[in-house]
Structures are given as C-alpha cells and as structure tokens.
Amino acid sequence: MAFPIPNHLPRKGNPQDVSTRILSAISDTTSKALTAQVASSWVAELDDAIYSTKKRIKERIQEDLPLFDRQLETSRSVQDRLRSLTVNVDDLSHSLSDSESGLIPRLLRDLAAHASLAQEATDASVKMEAVEHLALCRREYGNLKSSVAEGKLPEAKSSCALLQNLLHEAPASLTGAKLFRDLSREFQALKARIDEQLDDVYSRSVVISALEIAIRPEVQVRQSETFITLPSILSSLSSEPMSVHLSTFRRDLTTHFIEHLSKQPSSVVSDEEEDIPGTRRYRLTSFPSPPDSEDRSSRLDNLSIILSFLDIHLFPYVPVAHLKSFKQSLCKPITSAVLQNVLIPALPSSLGQLPEFLKLADRAVKFEKEYISGVLADTGHDKEIKAWVGGISGHYERKRRMEILDRARATVVEQDDPNHTFRAEVIAQPEATPIKIEAVQGDVDALNGSAWGLDDEKEGGANGDDAVDEDGWGLDDDEPAPEPEPEPPAESAAKAEDPAAAWGWNDEEEATAVEDNPDQMEDDNPWDDDPWNDPPAEPEQKVPPPLPLSPQPKPATRLEKFSAKAKTGRSSVDSPTATPLPPSMPTTPSLPPPLPIATKMSDKRPETLKVPLSVIKESYLVSDRVKEILNAVRSALQESKEFSAAKIFSSTSSSSPPGTLLMQTAPLVLDLYRALYPVKFALELEESPARSMRYSNDCLHLSKELDQVELGTGSVKDKMTECKDRLRVVGDSWFYYSIEKEERAIGNILSEADGFVDLADEEQFDECETAVNEALRHVRRLAQQWKPILQKSKYYTAVGLAAEAALTRVLSDILALSDIPEVESHKLSELCRILNALEGLFGEDPEQPSMVVAYVPSWLKFSYLSELMEASIADITYLFEEGALVDFEIEELVKLIRALFADTPLRTNTINKIMKGHPAPR
After folding, report:
1. Which distant-in-sequence residues (6+ apart) come within 8 Å of 204 by Cβ?
2. What are phi and psi of 330, to 5 degrees?
3. Model confidence over 229-249: pLDDT tens digits?
4. Which of 192, 207, 235 is the last residue of a domain?
5. Please, are residues 862 and 810 in contact by the beta-carbon 8 Å criterion?
6. What is the domain range of residue 178?
7. SS (H, E, C) 488-500
8. Domain boundary residue among 235, 254, 286?
9. In a domain, 315, yes or no
10. What sign results for the dihedral spanned by CA atoms 169, 173, 174, 176?
11. Reduced 3-state DSSP string for 108-149
C-alpha cells in the first residue's frame, strides 16, 4: 500500500512532452526576442526528440522481435480478410439494389402489380354490391309507387317500411351517390303522401262532432277506386300519429258527449245507414231534451249507449298497443262526469228526496261496474263512484251543513234595520231587583215650629250672647238674627232651594240653564214614553211632601243643639242591595231644628231602603236576526233528529252515526254569529253606544233562549253548552265594555276642565262649566240611547256607572286641590250642583224617591262635597259628628279642610277631632 503524500508537501507537476514545451516557449517569446537562433534551437530540439523516439521504438522492437513478427503477420492476415469481405459485400449489395437486376426493385414491382389487381377486384365487388342494393331499392320503390297510385295504403305502408330499411342499410359507397340521394328524396315525398292519405281516410272513417259520432267500416281512398277498411287504417297508422288521433278523439268525446250529456238533459240514438252504394255508416246522435221531464238516470243511460257504441264499432279495431291506454284514459273523465255532473248536483236538500236519489246512486254503481270496470277494463282498486255512494250519508249532512251555514252567514252580515227588532221579557228576581228607597218622614210639626230657633234665642238671650259663633267665614258675626217672615209661595221656595238661585246667577243665565235642568227637558226627554211598557210599581209607603223652608235663612250656629230628629240614616252604597237602617231617634222639642244645609242633605240621604218582594217582568230590545239564528239552530237539531230516526242509511255506511254532522252544525251557527258579527260591524259597534248594547242584548237573549232548546247529545251537547256560556260571557263583556268606553269618553270630556284650578279666572271657569255641562249631556244622551234597549235593572246599572265615572272624576280632581279660595269654593259648588241633574235619570215616578243612591255609589259623597264647598267649620264638624260624612276618608276630610280654611286654632282643633276617626254609628 502506497504511503499517502501529506498535503503540506509540494506536488510534482505533470510531465510535459517536447512539443508542448516548445509550443509553450514559442507562445511565451515576444516578437523582439524571436530570432533565427531561437527558432533553430526549437527545430533542433524537435529533431532530437524525433530521433530519440525512433531510437526507443527500434530498441523496443529489438527487445522482443519474435513477438513483433507474429503480430505483424497477424495484422497482414487481417488486412487480407478485410479486403476479401469488402469485395463480397459489394457484390451482394449490387445483387440486391441494382435497378435492373436487383432483388428489391423486382420485389417492389411485383408488390405494386399485386396491389393494383386487388384494388381493381375490390372496386368491382363494391360496385356490384351497390348496383345490387340499388336494384333492390328500385324494385321496392316501384312497388311503393304503384301501391300509392292504386290507393293500396296498407301495402304501401308495408313497402314503405321495407324501403326505409333498405335505405337505412345502404352501403356507404352508395349513400354518397347522387342517384341514391334522389331516391331518398322521392321516398320521403311518397311517405308523406301516404301519411296524408291515411290521415284523410281516418278522418273520414271516424268522425266526431258536437252532436254526432260517425264510424265508417270502409272508406274509399281519394283519387282511386280502392276501399280501405277501418282495421287496416288503424293498423297502418304509425305509433305517433295513432296516439295523436286517439288523444284528439278522447278530447272531443269528453267535451261533446261525456261532459255535455252528463250536464244537460239529452237523448241519444244509435243507428246504421248506407253512406254510398255498397258502404255503411254507424252513427250515434244526441238530441236536447226538455229539462222539466228529465230523469237523471237517463244521463247514465246515455253514457252507457256511448260506451256500448264504441265497444262495438271502434275498440275492436284499435291496435293492441294503444287499446289499453286509450280505454284507461276514458275512465277518469267518465267517473268525474258521473260524480260532478250527475250525482253531486242531484244530492237533495231534504230528507224526503233521499230515497229517490238512492235509486239513482245504485244505478250509478251498476254503471261503474258494467261499463267502467267491464267495457273500459278499469283494473284500479279504487271504485270512486261506489266509494262516494257508500258515503252518501256524510255527503248529505255536509251539504246541509254548508247550506245552513251559508244562510246563517247571510243573516249575520245583513245590515241592521231598526224596525226589525222586538222586545224580550225577563223576570227580575227580588235579589236582582233595583232598590226602591222609601224616605221616613219625621214629625212635621216639630220641625215647623220655630224653624231657626229664634224663640230659643229670645228665651235664652244670655246664652245667645255668650255663645261662640263658629261660622268659618265670619260674615255674620255682627248681624242680628232676622225676624221670621211669612212662608213664601211655592215658586219662591223652589227658587230658594235652587243652588244656582242662591248665588243669584239664574237671573242672567236662565235661558242657558234650561238645558241643564232635567225638569225643563221633560218635553225632549224620551222617558215620557216608557219603552219597557211596564206598569209603575205601587209604592209600599206614601212619601210626605218636603218640609217648607224659610226664605233667605241665616247660616245656623251652635250645631251642637241640632235635634236628633234630623239625624240622617246611613245607607250602604258599596253594593246595589242595601239593608234597611234603624228608625230615627225620638224628637226632642227643646233642641233647635237643623240648619237649612243639614235639612237639604237629609233629603238626599234616605233613612230606609226597601226591596220589593214581588217578581217584576222587565223587557229589553233584541234584533230580529237573533230569532233567525235560533231558528237555524233549532232547525239543524230537529233535522238531525229526523235524519237519525229515518234509518235510511246503516250505521256502518259512515264513520259516525247518521245525523251527527247535522247536529254539529248547530254550535257552528252560534260560533259563526259570535265570530263574524263583531268583525263585520266593528265600526258601528265602536261608534254607536246603542248598537253595542243591543249586540250585548242579542248575545244574552240568545244564551237565555238556548236554555229552552234541546242541546243534543254527547259532544254536541257539551259544545252547545259551551256556546251558550260563551254567548253569555260575550253579552256581559260587551255590556261592560260599552260602559267602560263611555267612561273613558266622560273622563276625556272632564279632562278639559284641567283639574278645576284657577276658577277665579272667568275664562277658566267657563271652560270648566262647559266640560261639566258636556259630561252631563253625554250621560243624558247615553240614557236616551240605552233606555229603549236595556232592561230596567241593567239600564240603571249602566247609567249609574256612567254617572259614577263623571262624579268620581270631579271628586278626585276637587279633592286633589291643595288650596281652595272662597271665590273658587263657591264656583266649585256651583259646578258640582250642575251634575245634581243626573238624579232625574234614576226615577220613573216623580212622586217616588230617586234610586240614584243604589246605582251611583259616590252620589252621597258628591252631594255632600257640593255642600261642603260652602259650609263653615261648624257645619262640617256637626255633619262629621252626626256620621253624615262617612263616605269620605279621614285623609280626604283633613285635606279638604286645610284647602278650604286658613290655619287657625279652630281648624287645628277640628282636624285633630277628625283624625280620631269617624264616630261609631248610634
């Protein structure tokens, strides 16, 4: 193994030969250094190198001369063999490639001659095949042309098919020939002519029009003497034209015969006649029949005649490939025509006509079995006519239900006629009868004695001088007590009682006050003609006339001396039914009589409330449409019973027993009325208080009358009971909704008063007075509209709630005032007294006490409020101690006293006394 040379040792350069070294020297020598001597040295060096090389070669040969000789001999032998092989190759190449005698040129010439012969043979074979095929096409074309010329269309159709196959299978060498293209065009023209002739003979063989179907078994081809039969025509038609012809025939048959004959009374005649000598024509003709004498089963007979005619003269000749589908396509139109045009329109609307209709239905079932399933070979499992006939019971009931509901819908949406109403009576039970209030009058003589206690003051003058005057306003502190005057006439007494006359305003506004005075509106008031037509109830106790009052009395003082004779009873206003109060305490003659304000408030608060125990009949207004709705309900229930009792159908013919659907129609009529009427007349119900109350009456009367109707059985009875309850709820809801709507309207009217503030301003006072007057007129208008409609008890309830809304709003606004100056208090009292006219709405007999307390819970509180606006602290203290102000909350009284009176020790003492609570009833 050689020792590796380290990398740091210098490497020996590659040895260079002489020529390379000399050439390098020549290239390195510049032109100036190049001399002849240098060049001679380079030549001498080369010569030396050549000589040295030759010498080494000779020495090398001499070293192994025998081996050199053998190699030399071998190389000479190889050269000889190479020269011999070259000569032989050249001779062989000449033998093969010579253009004249060479093997390859001779072979190529022979192959070219063979290919030419093969092509000639092929051309001859193709030409012969084309000529033979063309000869076949020519022969068939000639047959086709002759058949067409002679009118032999079936043979022409066969030749046409054969020629078409020949043309389709023509050799490729023939298809490009001009002769072949001309033959193809001639063939297409003949084919189109054949199709036209076939269509022509078919159109003359099978003819259908609006009134006739004609079928010719044989038809002569035009421009020939050949007759072609119908089977040949139908079999010769191609598949696509055949489908088109059958589709057109089905359409015309359905339109002109199936639909027409199933809708219109007609008669159908089938006959046979000679068309032209030697040919026949089968004809089916329809004729209109008089509609009055028509039997609907004749329509089925007409359809039977049509199908029998087609089954004999057409169906046997239709190709098998089209016959089944053609028959199936007729099944649906015929079935629909029988159902929609024969059976369903003939379904009767009365029970007595059903037996005759069932005969027609049985005839339709037989028709379906014999013709649709038999002649038309309908293989479907659904027999529609049979299935429909099996459900005739349900179909009849559904038809009657739709008729009943349609009539009910027309009744509901019919416009209201005020003349189409009636009055229904209702018995008001004692517990629901409005309260009759009987006033218990005290000892008149005791109260008429010294009306204002002036004699007492004369007898006890010291006490009169030393007593403290509790007049809150202090206007009469220095005035002497007036002398008793003679009793004024009735007109003066009435004027003295008039609140407006007390302020002296009626002198200037007497004309305008007439509108707000219920007594002066009697001529324009509808209450004179009692719409309820009820005789006035006999009062159980005569009410004595009111006590006479002295004119211009001085406000009384020392209310602690008020006689127990003038105490007022407390009636409950929390509910319409009030319990009688205990009788008044015995009169004490030594005590002074009550002051005028207390006397007037005693008149407003009766001492006893008595409820009559007799049964009272009341009436209310109801629309005539309610009778029609009730008649529809009764008719549906009665018809259901009759239908179920007739036993015309078996219970297995439908999923539910006969009569069930008719029975279910009764509650649907009620549902339709309840749902449709408020929507149809929504605007009228919203704008007319009378209309909404009458709708409430209608629903309640309908609910009440349903109690007298047999409500059916099972689920229908439950549904009818539910409808009855819902009608009652709807009636009550509309009653109170109408009242609430008017309460909101009254609230909006009184909102124009702006809380009754700043009444010292005349413009503000006029606006408040206008608002209060408008509220009064609104309530009166409601009373005028509601009284002819509502029964008495509900009328008083409705008007009472409307009046309560007005009083409550005025009460809340006045009690909310934090400061009421003297001028404003008088004006507030005047405004309050305007609404006192509402009392006239709650009485029919002027000789009987008003029932306003029973129906307007805030009436007493409102009445006392108008008086408290002008009362002194002494008056308020007296009324509080006597229990007359129990309608007021303690906080309301305290706030009212603080608003009316200045902050004085007397006011503080009074407030402290009131803060202890209302006195216990005695």
Report:
1. 216, 219
2. -85, -15
3. 899 889 888 889 899 999 999
4. 235
5. yes
6. 130-235
7. CCHHHHHHHHCHH
8. 235
9. yes
10. positive
11. HHHHHHHHHHHHHHHHHHHHHHHHHHHHHHHHHHHHHHHHHH
Cα–Cα distance measured from residue 95 to residue 93, given in angstroms and rounded to the nearest whole number: 5
Please name the helix (run of DSSP H) or strand (run of DSSP E) that holds residue 832, with its range, or none: helix 822-834
* Tokens of residue 71, six digits: 């190699």
CB 724 within 8 A of CB 699: no
Is the model more confident about 286 or about 585? 286
Q: Which two structure tokens, joined as six digits, stand for 147? A: 């058949």
* Tokens 């009440």 belong to residue: 704
* Residue 885 φ/ψ, nearest 5 degrees: -110, 25
Compute the distance between CA of residue 771 and CA of residue 682 in angstroms, rounded to an integer: 29
Cα separation, 834 vs 130, in Å, equals 128
Residue 795 has pLDDT above 70, yes or no: yes
Whether residue 226 sits in one domain with residue 203: yes
DSSP state of 817: -
What's the token pair of residue 783? 């009373």
Q: Is the pLDDT of residue 638 over 80?
A: yes
- In angstroms, the first-to-last Cα distance of the chain is 153
- Print burial letters for 780-808: b (CB count within 10 Å at least 16), e (below 16): bebbbbbbbbbbbbbbbbbbbbbbbbbbb
Count CB-CB contacts under 10 A for residue 141. Answer: 20
3-state secondary structure of 266: strand
By C-alpha distance, which of 157, 224, 218 is closest to 192?
Answer: 157
Angstrom distance (rounded) from CA 134 to CA 574: 122
54-68, 411-425, 558-572, 725-739: which is most confident: 725-739
> Same domain, yes or no, for 243 and 375?
yes
Q: How many domains does the chain have?
A: 2
Q: Give the number of other CB atoms < 10 A from CB of residue 23.
A: 13
